[in-house]
Specification:
By secondary structure, the protein is mainly beta. Strands 30, 32, 33, 36, 37 and 38 form a 6-stranded mixed β-sheet that branches. It is flat and about 135 Å long. The two termini are 77 Å apart.
Length: 817
Amino acid sequence: MNANETPSGQLATSPLTVVVSAWDRNRITPGSDHYLGVTLVNRGDQDAVIQVRLESPSDLLQQWCLQTEQWLALNRGKSGELTFCIRIPGDAVPQWLNYDVVVRPQGTYGDYYIPPTPCRLQILAPETTETTQDPTFAISPLTTPNTPVMVQSGVPVVAELVVENRSERVDRFRLECTGLPEDWAVKVDYPRNYSNLGLIQIEDSLGLNPGDRGTIQVFLQAPPLPLAGNYLPTFRLASENDPDLGLLALMYLRVEPVYSLQSQLQVIQDQVRNDPAQFTVQFANLGNTPRQVNLALKSLAPPEDCLYYLPGETVTLEPQGTAQIPLEAQPQRWWTRPWFGGGKVYGFRLDLTDVDRHPVIPDTHQGYVTWMPRPWWQLLLLALLALGIIGTLAFLIWWNFLRPPTPARVVEFAAEDSRYSEANGDMARVRWQIENPQQIRALRLTGYSPEGELLSGPLTYEFQDGQLPAALQPFCTQQKTLLSCSQIRSDAFQPGKYVFELTLIPRRPRSAPIAAKTSSVEIVAKPLPTVTALVAKSLIYREASPGAPSPAEKAIPVVDRDGIRLDWLVTMPRDLAALHLVGRDKDGKLVGERWYTFSKIGQLPEALQPYCLLEQTLICRSVPTGLATVGEYRFELKAIAAGQPDNAAKPVATEVVKIQPQTPKILSFQINGREAPVKLLIPFQPGQTPPVIEVSWRVQGSSTTQLQLTPAPGNVPLSGKMSLPLSPQSSTTLALTVKLPTGEPLTRSVTLEVYSPVQSGAEQESETPAVPPVAPSPPSGASAAPAPSGPPPLDAPTPAENVPLAPAEQPPQFNRR
């Protein structure tokens, strides 16, 4: 029976009432907000949760309404209201927006159907302003919302638009018509014969001289049966001289409703035996308006004799639409079904009522259900039933007085649990139920592997004179012919999988034994210690080296002499024999290992005592590894249990941990005790010994920093100095290059050029002061000569003009923002 139907066959009304109201009478101009109110009343005896949605075949509703779905909870006997806001943009064209208000009850009222409420919103034309130079046009016939043009079926609506060109230039106009459904035909007819001077005739436009007028005819052809209602075609006149100017005019049309709804009750099966009778109520809406019809079903027989099923009490039909509603009838009280004759007839009546009191043809249908008489073979069943009763009595006599003793039978045989744990000292236990235990001589319990290998037993229990063995008495109870035993211990305690077999040995010598088996039972091995977590305190370290770190390096922890530190977590630490820690480089090569041996259970190795806590789990924090060399490493830790070989434990690895070198920095690069410029001039007199300069440098870096001085001697330490003779015939470029961790080079260079000092006085005055040469070391025991005063000597090297450093030679800098 449907949730909307009463036991008497009548359809129940919905306990929810819906009222939809618009604040602006469903007429709005672009740029305004349209508010729609939905009032819900709970007239039922249960609390309700209701979903309300706005649905439309047009995508404009989803764009203009930000919240198309809302929920409301109502107590019984209460009411509430939901408000929906539809924001119409300012550029919206005049049109009709059709949408439905769909109400869907949830929970207790989920089976009740509430038909959608159709709504229609009219978007009017925006208010426009015109100037004295703008063209104008007038539409005929003149219509208003109260005096629209009535549309007749098959007769086109003719509109004439008189256009006036009020500008001082020749203009050409084109007309567009929008706002009508797609099944309407629109034809724009421009004048073909006109005598305007200086104009070229074009079929799809109207040309006008300044001050002239022209007439455009528009034919609006409706479909054979248009939908009833108001239509608002919008005419837009476009000017060729002013494309941004759009003149709008509206025409109000109305299609009168046509009400023509036909109904029919079609019989599918009205003569039934066991299945329900089936009918179909067919509707055909031949009009141009939506129709909503209420269905009222009334039984002409007593309500308890026949039940009727109708899916809903209301049907909604769109214009030119059809619908079919199934109707079923099921006769009740099977003992009233006739045995002979033409059957039993049940009548019913279906009344159809339009919600808006429009005619339904016909509005009443009457039907009949015939319950056919019982088939002839049911009489035969009565005879067979009598024979069955006689046979039953004979069987009971045989069962109680003549039958042989019933053999024993295993009613149930199963394990008490499918899993046991070796760690808890568990032993597998079974239970069984045996019928007629007085017919057995002994029981035998055996345990096998799933492959059939003997693992436990057999355990044999002898029944002396039908008495229960003493070993089973604490675990068994016997009620009449049923022996129930539970928690029977086996001798299976080793880890593995078992299948137990119970064998009943009968008391009668020639009877075959009866066997029963359990499903697979597993004894889980004791859990081994396992490394569940292994992480480094930091994934990036920087090398401990002298010098000031960069701001970016200050945020990276410094690796000390204890090296990288690790945290780990190990379960079941009471069974630990050792921990094996291995370190590998990025290529997987072993770089070191450590063994932590647990000499006594529950006692930490001395090396781990400052860093670990041993409780239910072993928790170690900041354990030093001693690995402090620059590079990339990965650590592996294995937990080895007592009696377990080393290769049986699976290691747990960390992520890659990196110790990065300090970013190198050129602190000093000097020629003869002064910072080297980009270019340095060195005077040289022919016949003298080739000049010798002293080069010194100092670079901040790490142990892996590579420093080169080119062209010679190549690789050099981070700080040092050396004497370098120069060739008088050519220039020499000295470059100090250090490789950054990113792979890019950092270079400082100086170009040394030897020249003859024979120059004009003007050229000598323009030179910059020279750099003093390196004085030769005095002989042993001699005192150093006093420093000369006055201008520098002639053989002193002279720096070139200040030249900006190349980008590769400049020290690194951070971007300033």
